[in-house]
């Protein structure tokens, strides 16, 4: 078993983003973060992204709304940022309070500023292999596979989770790389049997140690995209690492690459560039 660490890859991506940010003439690239409420984990994530921005030469702007904010108020704040020519990318920190229509808020982000890859436009671009911004965590997963020499072509991949910003786009990106993809979820019958057949397992279900170690096929590649209290992923790590050929740690696996892609895509948006090639359309 070898660890599929994302730390070194994230550093490479950020170094390149910083170089391209410095090469710009005029203002720095700008990422705007929007947070509704004061969830401690979300506040921490936003601060972490702001620190990464500063270290990469990207300006950051933060819009904080109270937990009582309505969908209309949140959409209005995002729309204002979308119309601001000094803002290149917009990140809506999720999850939002339950009373807010999260999809309506996401769709207020203009496609050209959707550097987190959460809109329907971005999902369609990923599904059809068209230019656009990828969802950062799924994009980070593909970059991790590339960096560790894992070619999904012809491999059986099982994605556990079907969220529109993680599980579904991860499946689309793996399918575009010619993997045979099965998407599993909370109502999948015989989940363990599906996982036992997988050459690549992507766990994105949001439940601590939900994927048991003895489900993993010997030699499989395991990507744990979960993060739960106590630095615990969605995979039973100690047991799974005994069977997997490659496995991501939590933390230090997918997370650093997710943030790096967010900033890379912000610089790309500022420069009017397309996303560096991740999707490869197949037949």
From TrEMBL:
Q: Which residues form the Tetrahydrofolate dehydrogenase/cyclohydrolase catalytic domain?
A: 4-116
Q: Could you say which protein family the record assigns here? A: Belongs to the tetrahydrofolate dehydrogenase/cyclohydrolase family.
What SUPFAM superfamilies does its record include?
Aminoacid dehydrogenase-like, N-terminal domain (SSF53223), NAD(P)-binding Rossmann-fold domains (SSF51735)
Q: Which UniProt keywords apply?
A: Amino-acid biosynthesis, Histidine biosynthesis, Hydrolase, Methionine biosynthesis, Multifunctional enzyme, NADP, One-carbon metabolism, Oxidoreductase, Purine biosynthesis
Q: Which domain of life is it from?
A: Bacteria
Q: What organism is listed for this UniProt entry?
A: Amycolatopsis acididurans
> Tetrahydrofolate dehydrogenase/cyclohydrolase NAD(P)-binding domain spans which residues?
135-271
**Which protein is depicted?**
Bifunctional protein FolD
* Role played: Catalyzes the oxidation of 5,10-methylenetetrahydrofolate to 5,10-methenyltetrahydrofolate and then the hydrolysis of 5,10-methenyltetrahydrofolate to 10-formyltetrahydrofolate.
Q: Which Pfam families match?
A: THF_DHG_CYH, THF_DHG_CYH_C
EC nos? 1.5.1.5, 3.5.4.9
Q: Give coiled-coil spans as residue ranges.
A: none
Q: Please give the subunit comment from the record.
A: Homodimer.
Q: Which residues form the signal peptide?
A: none
User: What residues bind NADP(+), as annotated?
Assistant: 161-163
Q: Which chemical reaction does it catalyze?
A: (6R)-5,10-methenyltetrahydrofolate + H2O = (6R)-10-formyltetrahydrofolate + H(+); (6R)-5,10-methylene-5,6,7,8-tetrahydrofolate + NADP(+) = (6R)-5,10-methenyltetrahydrofolate + NADPH
InterPro entries associated with the record: Aminoacid_DH-like_N_sf, NAD(P)-bd_dom_sf, THF_DH/CycHdrlase, THF_DH/CycHdrlase_cat_dom, THF_DH/CycHdrlase_NAD-bd_dom
At the highest ranks, the source species' classification is: Bacteria, Bacillati, Actinomycetota, Actinomycetes, Pseudonocardiales
* UniProt pathway annotation: One-carbon metabolism; tetrahydrofolate interconversion
């Amino acid at each position: 078993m070898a660890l599929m660490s994302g730390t070194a890859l994230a550093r490479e991506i950020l170094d390149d983003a910083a170089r391209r940010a410095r090469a710009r003439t005029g203002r720095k690239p700008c990422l705007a973060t929007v947070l509704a409420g004061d969830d401690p984990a979300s506040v921490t994530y936003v601060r972490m992204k702001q620190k990464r921005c500063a270290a990469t030469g990207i300006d950051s702007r933060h819009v904080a709304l109270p937990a009582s904010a309505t969908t209309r108020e949140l959409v209005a704040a995002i729309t204002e940022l979308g119309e601001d020519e000094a803002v290149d990318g917009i990140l809506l920190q999720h999850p939002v309070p339950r009373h807010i229509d999260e999809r309506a808020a996401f769709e207020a982000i203009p496609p050209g500023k959707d550097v987190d890859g959460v809109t329907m436009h971005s999902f369609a671009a990923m599904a059809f292999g068209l230019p656009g911004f990828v969802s950062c965590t799924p994009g980070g997963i593909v970059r991790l596979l590339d960096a560790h020499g894992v070619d999904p072509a012809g491999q059986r991949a099982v994605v556990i989770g079907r969220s529109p910003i993680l599980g579904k786009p991860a499946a689309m990106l793996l399918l575009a790389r010619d993997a045979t993809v099965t998407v599993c979820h909370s109502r999948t019958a015989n989940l363990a049997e599906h996982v036992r057949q997988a050459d690549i397992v992507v766990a994105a279900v949001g439940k601590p140690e939900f994927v048991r170690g003895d489900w993993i096929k010997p030699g499989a590649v395991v990507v744990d995209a979960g993060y739960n209290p106590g630095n615990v992923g969605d995979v039973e790590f100690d047991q799974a690492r005994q069977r997997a050929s490659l496995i991501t740690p939590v933390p230090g696996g997918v997370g650093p690459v997710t943030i790096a892609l967010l900033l890379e895509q912000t610089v790309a948006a500022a420069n009017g560039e397309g996303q560096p090639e991740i999707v490869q359309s197949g037949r």
